[in-house]
């Protein structure tokens, strides 16, 4: 069972996006009292008791894995395993082995039989994160497994039945990808029986200070700091910032502020934001420290991606280029 609870990508913990204690306003460990999040909570309540496939949509840092875990905990599979796989972190050569398993000798380094994520999740929930990032040739293999509800390990001929509840997530505009031929329509319809659309933090204004207070208490305790609150000016700064990195960025901002603070209250100088607010960036946009076209293009791509929280379609639209053209530039500059 320990293997079943492991993850391909263990860098994102529940606390990265706002894990709550029981007394915190929220639902199943997700902090929030805004109307936007209440709608999300109600949808989780409705879908959790079924075995319907769920697709969670949202920008990076909004808490998609937390939603998947809440669906699992509220389901009849709650006593079963919750297994995660970050498909965006899997190379094509490892995709089948990690998800479907392999037998001894199937390839160089396969020294013993190994179950994949699907088998590990048998009787529980399988969470496939960043499903919008997998290439077309692997989408067909995934679709076949989902249709047949059985997997064949790499190097084997025996099909093994699997009983899973599937929850997928992506930060990509997956319907645009389908329209452009980058994502299979039949796979999308297979995974999105119910969709849960997570709002970005900039649309959850009522939750910003609630989350900030939660993270302040967490890190004041972690670092044994005397910090107890925020000045009015710091609260205003937190409220006005556009949070392109969403709750995860807020968490890291408060952690850094607690470390840097020299008093019992966090002041604006303790808050280091990762990106200028769109409203205050006009002066910076008007000046250039270089006229090298490659440098200017790279800065523009970085700025657009940061502004739109990594949403490729929105960044491409602002840059006036296609998604594919933006992907080429992301690869070109190693972004």
DSSP summary, beta strand count = 11
The end-to-end span amounts to: 37 Å
CATH architecture of the largest domain: 3-Layer(aba) Sandwich
User: Which structural class should the secondary elements be placed in?
Assistant: alpha/beta
Order of secondary-structure elements:
EEHEHEHHEHEEEHHEHEHHEHHHH
Number of domains: 3
Mean pLDDT: 86
Query: How much strand content do the residues show?
Result: 5-15%
Quickly name the level 1 CATH class of the largest domain.
Answer: Alpha Beta
The CATH homologous superfamily name of the largest domain equals P-loop containing nucleotide triphosphate hydrolases
- Order the strands across the largest sheet as they lie in space: 4-5-8-3-9
Proportion of helical residues = 40-55%
Described by strand count, sense and barrel closure, the largest sheet is: 5 strands, parallel
Q: Uncertain runs with pLDDT below 50, 5 residues or more?
A: 1-16, 279-286
Radius of gyration: 22 Å
Secondary structure topology:
Layout: E1 26-27, E2 30-31, H1 35-48, E3 54-57, H2 64-73, E4 82-86, H3 92-100, H4 117-120, E5 125-129, H5 136-148, E6 150-152, E7 159-161, E8 165-170, H6 174-179, H7 185-191, E9 194-197, H8 205-222, E10 229-230, H9 232-240, H10 246-260, E11 265-266, H11 282-285, H12 293-307, H13 312-319, H14 323-333
Parallel strand pairs: 3-8, 3-9, 4-5, 5-8, 10-11
Antiparallel strand pairs: 1-2, 6-7
Helix pairs in contact: 1-2, 8-10, 12-13, 13-14
